[in-house]
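Appendix B, example 12.
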Amino acid sequence: MKIRSTTIAALMAVLLVGSVAACSSSVAAPTEDKAQGTLKVGIEGAYPPFNYYDKDNKLVGFDVDITKALAKDMGVKIEYVATPWDSILGGLLAKKYDIIISSMAITEERKAKVDFTEPYYHTGSQLFAPTDTSITDPEDLKGKKIGVAIGTTFEEKARALGADVVTYKSDLLAFEDVKNGRLDGLLTDGPVGGNAIQVGGYDMKAVGTPLIDAAAGIAVNKNSAGLLKKLNAAIAKIQDDGTYLKISTKWFGTDIR
């Protein structure tokens, strides 16, 4: 997302319009063998710098570049199915797409419903608050009004810490509410929050150290052993041949595997 801190409409214009436009109108059930053909990929498209629509309405980001590299190794074409985060897992279960590559943390709850590849990156959740915040310990959130994207591990963590949780469809909306004094802070992925502050010019900062260390994986439906094996082999290949490092350095300046 290229963020402009003016109005919500302006903030969402680049992202959500493109996101809707990218959604597939007709969905075929995915097949196990992806050695040839097209791989349908569920992706949110509203989570910069991992996946988002740029000013030219083009889907870009770390997840997008990783997807392209994996597809090239697997010899398949890509069809993106942009899907809101709160329904993205349901879309996979309904077989609207073959896989999810959208910075999805691997959790035991999700593993009960779907299978995951080996992690393709590691990260952590971070508390962001106004620069003049009175919060000094990111774990001292009891009674604080904290924004989170709905259905995320950030929501689970904020509730566990006793925060007064407010859920949003997008981190962008939470950042705007912090800016306008409606929230004490928000929890999101560290690189995502840092990118939002830099691009959007928010008068905010990261508070303390990350609260959760998480691993992100590619989600597939149960009983997709062949597809899972191909994806894991492709992940290992791009990590070994330098492709992964090149992509990671492009977006983060370091190796986040």
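The mean pLDDT is 87. The domain at 123-212 is CATH 3.40.190.10 (D-Maltodextrin-Binding Protein; domain 2).
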